Amino acid sequence: EEYQFLLNNNTLTSKQQLSNYLITTNYLTKEQENELLKEYKKTGNIYYRLLYTQRILIDQYLGNRKLTRSETLTEVSIIKKYLEGIDTWGHYELSIFSNCLFIFDDEYIYHSFQRSVTKMKAYVDTAHYSELLSNFLLNGIHLSFHRSSVFLRKLFLGGWKKVSDRYKHTLDLARYKAFTA
């Protein structure tokens, strides 16, 4: 990311600017949503479609949007198809998975955690991986409480124990202790 920033003469790419905007804003207008879809159709870059899909699914999950069952299934299938098509997940795939954990059933989460997330630590930059993994684990713990799923809680707490032991970040250790108290 830093290299890309320097390569672009200390300016963010349009994708990076868009990502930053979407992270910091709570609401997108219909026009902005349509712009994402238009950019996807124009470029064929799945990045724009996935941003749109994540945004509307999260809005629905938070109760800020109503989708029909058919619309929901269509959007969920876009995320699943993309993630299942990637053999080796990176930062982007884990971010998508983490942001949309709520669309997956417990078994899917378990298998993806074992197959893709655990495997990532071998090749992802540890500075980014530990932060990304912490956010993923926090989302997973939240989901486990929302679903009252002891299975997920054990899965994510086990992962958090390993992260807090390995990376020794105070916040991770504090979160682990808080959730296991």
UniProtKB/TrEMBL annotation:
Superkingdom: Bacteria
InterPro entries listed in its UniProt record: Transcription_activator_Rgg_C (IPR010057)
Residue ranges annotated for the HTH-type transcriptional regulator Rgg C-terminal domain, each copy included: 36-166
Residue runs in coiled coils: none
Protein name per the record: Transcriptional regulator
Protein source organism: Enterococcus faecium (Streptococcus faecium)
